[in-house]
Design brief:
Shape: globular
CATH topology of the largest domain: TIM Barrel
CATH class of the largest domain: Alpha Beta
Number of helices: 12
Largest sheet: 9 strands, antiparallel
CATH architecture of the largest domain: Alpha-Beta Barrel
Number of strands: 20
Oligomer: single chain
CATH superfamily of the largest domain: Aldolase class I
Structural class: alpha/beta
Distance between the termini: 25 Å
Radius of gyration: 23 Å
Helix content: 25-40%
């Protein structure tokens, strides 16, 4: 890591060259972060955070002075251009000052000569990302990926590999992520070409990726023989920590492979199957438990029950895998509220979880046109207000916080913040 501190027109500027990313901080009021390709990652300015997706859309986050609730929305194309324009204007100002010798160095981890050259090269790299470059990036992303619609919160910096497209069930009432996607399984030749395309797309920016996420939904539903071939292909192409291939220097050293697995799909996987995948660097499995209340599961059209969820978790833990369990906060509205909290907490307390596991509490967000909304209306179920959802989340946390020793981590999972 190299850290450079200098002054430009009376403003203190920090440029931080990390192993996999670069950031520029201006007067502690603006921060611009980029990957090693110079592509924008996130900007913090005007009191808002702007997070860039890989296809150059922008998710903005801020808090209004009127209330504590975080505001999240996707910026429209005109705003994206304005955000990028403001950042490029600031960086162009720094670049011009550097060329004119108007930067006053305050601290540098390198010699002044090297510092000038490094900073100039990086600023030029950032400035290459104009509107035309972003449009080119969008087209490149679409040529490599089917839309990546959702990931767990700790996987936003993962490297997604899509061996399947869509969801093989695709009938849960509350989920619209894959409604328009026909479920497909890539052949091994197609998957190999996909991996190569992903590597070309990321370039040096791949160094920022920490792990692999095997997608889309329920990729682990594939027959075991096919999955083993898929995992072997991934292990040939990438380096993982604590493996002989970790000595290779042609890419990042990844922590492992992660994936979604729904309860009903997990019924097909034995402990031995899961151990075979763990031996090939499967690290964490994310399971949509949603609720421990069986009548609510039926209302959500989930084709499994709480006992099956418990059995799957036991098999996953016996195979030595870590878990991310997802619980829907607000599911079932006022009709199921008490049973949802009590029976979900009871179910999770029975599971053999540890500190390596995470329980995600995910507030329910559905559209008025969703099947969930139609069912709720027919059943006379009132949706919980935002305050009631926060209260239910607190109840769930209180029920789980001291339930197990050692206990899994509890975290919020707001799908509106998803970015890839």
């Amino acid at each position: 890591m190299n850290l450079f501190e200098f002054a430009c027109q009376g403003r203190r500027v920090l440029l931080n060259l990390k192993q996999a990313s670069v950031s520029v901080s201006v007067a502690d009021k603006e921060v611009y972060s980029f990957d090693l390709e110079g592509k924008p990652l996130s900007f913090w300015m005007n009191g808002k955070t702007f997070v860039w997706t890989l296809d150059c859309r922008v998710i903005k986050k801020w808090r209004d002075s009127e209330g504590p609730e975080k505001q999240i929305q996707e910026a429209d194309p005109n705003e994206c251009q304005a955000i990028l324009g403001q950042a490029r204007s600031r960086l162009a100002e720094l670049h011009m000052a550097l060329q004119r010798g108007n930067l006053q160095f305050l601290r540098s981890d390198d010699s002044a000569c090297n510092a000038f050259e490094l900073i100039g090269n990086w600023l030029a790299k950032f400035l290459a990302w104009d509107t035309a470059r972003c449009e080119e990036r969008k087209r490149a992303f679409a040529s490599v990926y089917s839309p990546v619609t959702i990931l767990p919160p700790d996987q936003y910096l993962t490297l997604v590999l899509q061996v399947t497209l869509g969801c093989h069930w695709n009938r849960c009432t509350f989920c619209d992520f894959y409604r328009t996607v026909h479920f497909q399984i890539r052949s091994m030749d197609e998957f190999e070409q996909h991996i190569r395309g992903v590597k070309r797309f990321f370039g040096d920016g791949i160094q920022l990726r920490r792990s692999i996420f095997l997608g889309d939904a329920n990729a682990l539903v594939l027959p075991q023989s096919r999955l083993l071939r898929v995992f072997d292909q991934i292990n040939q192409e990438f380096s993982f920590a604590h493996s002989p291939s970790a000595a290779r220097q042609d890419g990042p050293i990844l922590e492992g492979i992660n994936s979604f697995l729904d309860v009903f799909a997990g019924e097909r996987k034995s402990e031995m199957d899961l151990r075979e995948l763990k031996a090939r660097h499967l690290r964490r499995v994310y399971v949509g438990v949603e609720t421990g209340c069986d009548p609510l599961l039926a209302f959500l059209n989930k084709p499994a029950n709480s006992a099956q969820a418990s059995d799957l978790v036991v098999r996953l833990k016996c195979a030595g895998l870590s878990l991310g369990l997802i619980v829907l906060i607000g599911a079932g509205g006022d009709h199921f509220s008490d049973a949802h909290v009590e029976e979900t907490a009871a179910l999770i307390r029975r599971m053999p979880l540890g500190t390596e596991d995470v329980i995600y509490l995910s507030p329910l967000h559905t559209s008025p046109e969703s099947e969930y909304a139609h069912r709720a209306k027919e059943a006379g179920i009132r949706a919980l207000t935002s305050l009631e959802i926060e209260d239910q989340s607190k109840q769930m946390r209180a029920s789980l916080a001291s339930a197990q020793q050692p206990s899994p981590r509890l975290a919020r999972y707001d799908i509106r913040e998803f970015v890839y």
